[in-house]
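LOG
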Amino acid sequence: MSIEFADSARRHFAEDRLDERLVLDAIAHPLWVAMVDPDDSSVAPPADTNPPTILMVCKRHEGALEDDLIELLVSMPRPGVMRIFHAMHLSGIWRDYWNTYR
């Protein structure tokens, strides 16, 4: 599987102390994964979007504390390609979603 980073994925890297390597490592060990509608967090998983959009909740790094979490929004624009378009600390919207549906 090929992994691409959209420019928008890097928007919060500096403020959240993230980089591509940390995100790739986090993807390897997600705490929770669900198909979501990124424009409507009221839609319960699995959301039916085209292309599919996946929310991944991950620890920032392997030794991170339990509350040091990041959210990743990933699309699958074509077979064999994972495109990360959002990466940042776990925000209130997606934290509430995760707590509701996990």
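LOG (cont.) second protein
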Amino acid sequence: MVARPAVRFRHSQLRLTTATASALFWSDWLLLEEKTISGVPTAVLGRDGLIRVFWRSPGNELFVKQATHILGGFNRPAVKLATGVAGDPAAVLNADGRISVFYRGTDSAAWNVTHKSVAYTDWAPADSLHGGIQGVPYPILAADGRVEVFVRGGDNNLWVAQQKTPDATGNWNDFVKIVDGLTSDPKAALDADGRIRVFWRGRDGAGYYIGQQADYDTWSPGGTVKGGLASALYPFRSPLDGRLEVFATGGNKAAWVAEQKTVNNDAFEDFVTLGGGIAGSSIPARHTDGRILVFVRGGDNSIWYAPQNWS
């Protein structure tokens, strides 16, 4: 299977669709949960081959629904993982394959819930990383095996917290400020050499980024991708040539993309338009043949996608 978008429909129920690996043909929408959900759900493929979908309820609770087998089927009941959840969830795999789910709590702190063991069944109690954040955290597994979590603070600055050691899901360094001037949630991706690069929209509506230096610890001065943006930036590394592709919604409500000039380069081409009249963000995903698919919500509130054929 290539992709399984899980979305919240107008009536706030959770539904899923599946595409085949051989061609971009999509199944009918499958109702996963009859109960009302809030915000935007997120799905992640586990090390055990099972998809898990996470969402927030109107009662500020975090739920997960797990696939029954690797080919699909969601017959198991949803499981409540946490309470006091104020923001959408974001999930990442630890180095040992355990899933950690991060969210903003009703106390404005960053929180996470993690699998107890590599059996990938039970979940540990929610744990606070503290801090005062807004929006949705962005966790990523770094090249050294530690998870790093990037957040937009209440001061509109970019902050990061790191696991002290790989898989130390309850042992974190304090948040450290990196840069200021964010007007969107941060998003991150790994360069081909494993260095983290973080993207955000600045006060002037342009796209900005900062990347780790060769020591995988300190940060470069950063750079900008010009353009008047209406959304956060979503970076995605191409499986075909290793360059980062950065997607965003322009002020003209079209999907835009900017490409890294060469693999691991600190410079990016300017944004070019992919067209379309869209609402919200442009979300990339990978097809099994290596091409990138971009998913958007159209002006008609339908889901649209475009397979990669840009130069």
